[in-house]
Amino acid sequence: MAQTEKKGGLLRKSSASKKPLKEKVVLMYDEIFTTEDPSKCNPRFWEELFLMKVNLEYLEGKLEALDGEELMKIKDNINCLFQHCIQALGEEHPIRVVNALQTLCALIRGVHQKNKSTSGFDIINMLVGFDKAELCMKNLMESLDSLLCAEGSESLKSLCLKLLLCLVTVTDNISQNTILEYVMINSIFEAILQILSSPLSRREHGYDAVVLLALLVNYRKYEVVNPYIVKLSIVDDEATLNGMGLVITQALSEYNRQYKDKEEEHQSGFFSALTNMVGSMFIADADEKISVQTNEAILLALYEAVHLNRNFITVLAQSHPEMGLMTTPTSPIPTTPVTPLGTTPPSSDVISSAELPLDADVQTSNLLITFLKYSSIVMQDTKDEHRLHSGKLCLIILTCIAEDQYANAFLHDDNMNFRVNLHRMPMRHRKKAADKNLPCRPLVCAVLDLMVEFIVTHMMKEFPMDLYVRCIQIVHKLLCYQKKCRVRLHYTWRELWSALINLLKFLMSNETVLLAKHNIFTLALMVVNLFNMFITYGDTFLPTPSSYDELYYEIIRMHQNFDNLYSMVLRLSTNAGQWKEPASKVTHALVNIRAIINHFNPKIESYAAVNHISQLSEDQVLEVVRSNYDTLTLKLQDGLDQYERYSEQHKEAAFFKELVRSISINVRKNLAFNTLSQELLLKEFSTIS
């Protein structure tokens, strides 16, 4: 007996003598793609259509095969199909609803594909017709809202979210997607919040819900009042905010785990053995191969929550067991399709203490720690465009956190100590720090460690100037809080001072190359003013008097770098070139650093001569410093503890437009609607008649 094969909507016998037979659903699609009304000959046409398993590939392919003129000829049938899909969403039989949802996805994607050509027809008119658009879209959004909020099938909720993601990402630039006007008018914001506040729904659909919300918030955000922005900014329900935080934590933790697994796999492999044999000359190249796709969508969601909602700041510090160390509860496999590494939605939930009690033997973590670990990975390699965008967004999020009074309060809280294992870039001149030796410290120490790590590891030909500026600004904002609140942080400040001095040295060594692309004096001025901040106000926030002495020791020890910087900026500020003004600002900013060097150096030389010592020890230099403070004269510099607050619209609009475009393309590419087999659906909806 000849076997039957199915391919591209065709049923054919393996015998070559027989003509291919089309599936019934494909024959019905063909009827829709004629100019005749398909229900004329068969009054039950639409009723029967939604009982048939959708052939997405055939339907989308059919739409793509038509040119604009041909599509306009069958516009009435397309409108009719769209309207019947919406009607089917209200049906009692879940199979009809599933098929209607999948058909809507195919229709929206197929019609939008045609719009990329020069045919110039209006998408809304093509899908629903202008005269019925408002009512149809209202009914569609209400049906989706009802399905998302209902107690019913998780598979239906999954498809509803996928349809909405399809609707939002069908154009690269979501602000040009006119259909979204109806999503703004008929809000599904409350339905998204409901998903995030319920542990079961969040486990199944939290990832898609958070990504959807992040995208909707970015629709024409600089042009009109976006209701999703307004509503997100005033959410104060603890369960909802914590739910959103848990979804973001899970996604970032998954990325961190995948990276760690790849790193361990990489280190235990052949290449590791080879590098041990020939030395560490290839270590940088080896590390570049450890690549996990970044997750800008979830990072955007974190940014919008931190930036728009002050109540979300409390979620950053919400403690839970560290995800890599805990046993997650068993949960159903999510219906979300597997996406590339780093973008995989969470497969299980990490919940509040009520659901997962904290164990005294398990290291506790929180969203901020998970985010700092994520940042330490993506900020290692900024040569890749996606990682560069991710790194920039990480620094923007940290900027928002560093400006927030409440966030600073818990960052600097001595009673909230954590062991934060940041990823450090392999470098030939330093050993890898052992995880177990990490001390428990206030969270601000981990933020400063991350900034120091970035400063030290990115002095390269393709100099990421923008990221360096943001990095120095974050340090400055944290110091401003410490000065204002007189927080004496026990931190290894020398590491920061050393990193900053080495940065100045790098800028001077590469003056010609860097000046061709960047105004390096802006960055140099910021670095010099950080030192001025320590010099002027250090006695109010450095942990001990000896820390202040050590600051002077470092400035004196590295005086050659400051002398060289002064010579460079003096040379450029006395010339009539384009750098005259920015260079002269650095010249003026160096006045106190030069006063310290010029005051103490002769005293140190004199001490060495009197005591017949050729090389003074650190303690001897510190003794000279302590005994000669009284005769040092410094100038009071204004505005050192002032900064310009972060503003997205005026400075970052272009970055976010490009970022959202990239996310939209990526989400659309990874979206799958046919992941639910008909067998699984029939099993779930076993009550169907």
Automatic annotation (TrEMBL):
Q: Name one GO cellular component term.
A: cytosol
Enumerate the subcellular locations listed in this protein's record, separating them with semicolons.
Membrane
> Where do the Armadillo-like helical domain residues begin and end?
435-671
- SMART domains for the chain: DUF1741 (SM01158)
Pfam family for this entry, one = ARMH3_C
Main location (coarse class): membrane
Which key words are in the record?
Answer: Membrane, Transmembrane, Transmembrane helix
Q: Which InterPro entries match?
A: ARM-type_fold, ARMD3-like, ARMH3_C
**Protein name per its UniProtKB record:** ARMD3 protein
Q: Which organism is it from?
A: Oceanodroma tethys (Wedge-rumped storm-petrel)
